[in-house]
Each structure stands twice: as structure tokens, then as C-alpha cells.
Amino acid sequence: MFAGARLRQLREDRSMTQSDLARQLGISPSYVNQLEHNGRPLTLPVLLRLTEHFGIDAEFFTPQDTARLVADVREVFADDTIDGTLSAGQVDELTTQLPDVARTLVSLHHRYREAIENIATLVSEQGLDRTAAQQPHEEIRDWFYRRSNHVAELDVPAEKLAAELRLVPGEVRAGLTAGLRERHGVKVVAESIGAEQHWFDPVNRVMHLSPALRPGQAAFRLASELAMLETGQTIDRLVDDGAFSGETARRLARIGLANYFAGALVLPYRVFLGAAERYRYDITRLSDLFGVGFETICHRLSTLQRSGTRGVPFSFVRVDRAGNISKRQSATGFHFSRVGGSCPLWIVYEAFSAPGRILTQIAELPDGKKYFWIARTVNRAVGGHGHPGKTFAIGLGCELRQAHRLIYSDGLALGTDAAVSPIGMGCKVCERPACPQRAFPAIGKALRINEHASSLLPYPPQT
């Protein structure tokens, strides 16, 4: 295989010259140069020497799945405020040969869009500070997105703590309460605290917990506070390394990381992954076994990407009836667009028409990649009669080649005769010219306008 970029990264990370690397491997510097420039393939003997000398897994050199990065770069050049285009071949070459440059380009584009939005806000009549209201949440989502929704620095200690506390699946509340009391002197009191779900008093070492919480919700809140007490320094270090823009983003990052630790504590990695594989990712059975809700199970399934013991790589999304995406994380190549909303043909939105039922879809993106999606609604009551509740649709998707591992694919054709639904990343960047469901014309595409003719297509492109 050709792995020049990865080999160069390995050498530069260790501050080695090509001659230094050649001496370590017992080959000539010119051979190293050819390897790094993909003039020669990486052979098995050289690969074995690399893994032995540097203590890395051979998978370090396997071709990287750049589907998400390709989609991100395409979105940059789909921006109608930027002059210039890249062909599909140029995008592929950039993301494959210079992935760090491509990521920097995407990051700069995000900052550019933020600046444009800030300027628009400052000159608006309302004078609202849109950045302060929205952007910190986007920063946190992007941080988890870049890490494929897996934080090993918290996942491993959470699993270890679950073993130390001897937590039993589905009955973790008592163990977490005892852990807070015995390890940190914290007393847990169940009492009504208004609209709050929980409140920790660090002075008196008392955690107030709403009695309205379901058992799984209560366990999660206990675990999130235990996360702060057990791994506060690790969380602070991760936040510092994240270089977030302000104190609001930093605080949200701490909450997000504490919640991640909580999920990993209530659903320990190997125990949960073993059950998921045993039940073929049956979310209802996993929910019953571990005593937590549908959304919590789906979110945890999207984090099972530990090196050497990976689960199915999932994308996770939560949307409301208006199409707003309030949660999105991905360990797959599936790309959530920031431009032009989501695709109305996506099964996640159809879930609202069948409350409580699990729906399935084989979705194909314009680049030909196919994904298997399941979606279901979840409801949350927040008060008595007359108080509006909360309804969301939860989506969980994986690449079609992984679908056979899921119980939801039983009885479905998954091969060439599969019933495929064509979807896009969002109307403004979607490349499908003949979609009757378009809400916006595609950016950079000329339209066919004729005053004396009409079309079933809302924005017919020029042919």
C-alpha cells in the first residue's frame, strides 16, 4: 500500500530526518524519500520494522477514510461568498495527500462564516449577540466531531471506576450514591428543586436530586457529578487543549465531557459493547438491561470506537419537528451540513409521523456512499397538565456494509437489489439535479428559467 503522508507524519512527530529513519529501518534514505512521496509502496517487511521500532499498530498506515473531510472541503467551495472551485479529483487529492491542510482550510472557513454572522448580527436592528447565544455549542460539537465522538482519556477511567464501584447494569443508582458518599463525602438528597434536575452544593457536600427523574436519568445525573469529582483535572486539561473561544464555551465543554464520562460510567465500555454485540444492537433490549432511555443508548453506541475493540461506527443525531439539529455526533463518514438545512427525504424526519415506532432506511448520498439508518421519536414531560413537553426524533446510522450486524436489518435486502432512498447533505450543497423536494437551488449551479414553461422540479438546472 502507499502511505507516504502517514510515514512522513510519523517521522516528523519524532523529529527525525529521512536519514535517521533510514538507519532505524536498515534501508537507504532515497528509499525513504520514495516511500514518503508514494513513489514506492510500503512493503510488509518495512511495515513490520516500523511497528517494532515505534510501537504502533499496523492500522496506523491503513488508508484513512476521508469521506467526512471530503464533504467538509466540498462545502467550503460550495459557499457562494467564496470565489474558486475544486474538481472532485482535486478534492480527493488534497484530502488524501494533505489532510492537515484540508482540515486547516475547513477550520478557517468555519471561522470566516462565524465572522460573517457576527458582522450581520452587529448591524442588525435587534442588536443580538448571536455568537454568545449559539457559537459555543457549535464549538463543542465540532470538538467531539473531530475526535469521532470518542474520548479515551475519560472512557478508560470511567470503565475502571465502574468496576471499583461494582456497578450492576440496570441498578447503578445505589452504587453511584455510595461512591459519592464514601469517596467524596457527598450526601444525596431527593427533593423537589423547582425546574432543576439536580443541584450540587459543594460547601455542604450535598447533591439535591429531583424525585421526578426516572431511574436512568437520576443515575446519569449522579454519574455526571461524580465525573467532576473524579476526573476534574483531566476534564480541565482537555478543555485547555481544546482552545475554546471563551468562558461560555469552556464551561459547556466541561459539562459535555462530564456527561461523556457519565455515559461511560453507567454503560462501561466492554460490558456495554459485549451486550450490544450479543443482542445485535437491539436498542430496546439494551435499554431494558441497563435501565436507561432510548436516546442514552443510541448516544453511547456512537462512542464505541476504542482502538482494538471497536463497535459499529455510528452517526447519532437528535432533531425536532422544525428540523433543528440539537445533537449530532459521528464516528462514520456521514457529514452533517451547516449550509441549507438537512434533507427532508431523510428517515429521521419521517419518524414524527409514526411516534414510538422504529423506522429504517437505506440512504444513498450523492457520492454513492450508502448508509443504514434507524429513527424513532422520544418524548419528555416537563410538568403537569398544560405544560408543553419535548418531542425529538433520534437517528442512528452506520455504513451499509455494517448493517448486517444490526437486528433491524433482518429481512431487508442489503445488496445490489436494496431499496435505496437518495438523500443529500442539505439542499444548497446537494448535487442531485432532479430532486422534487428541493427547498433551495444548489449553490454555484445555473438554473433553467423559462417564462413560458413550467417544471415539476422547483429549481430545474441548466442542462
From TrEMBL:
SMART domains: HTH_XRE
InterPro entries (alphabetical): Cro/C1-type_HTH (IPR001387), HTH_RamB (IPR026281), IrrE_HExxH (IPR010359), Lambda_DNA-bd_dom_sf (IPR010982), ScfR_C (IPR018653), TransReg_Diox_bact_type (IPR050807)
HTH cro/C1-type domain boundaries: 7-61
Keywords: DNA-binding, Transcription, Transcription regulation
Keyword hit for Transcription: yes
Keyword Disulfide bond listed: no
Family per record: Belongs to the short-chain fatty acyl-CoA assimilation regulator (ScfR) family.
Protein name (database record): HTH cro/C1-type domain-containing protein
Originating species: Saccharopolyspora spinosa
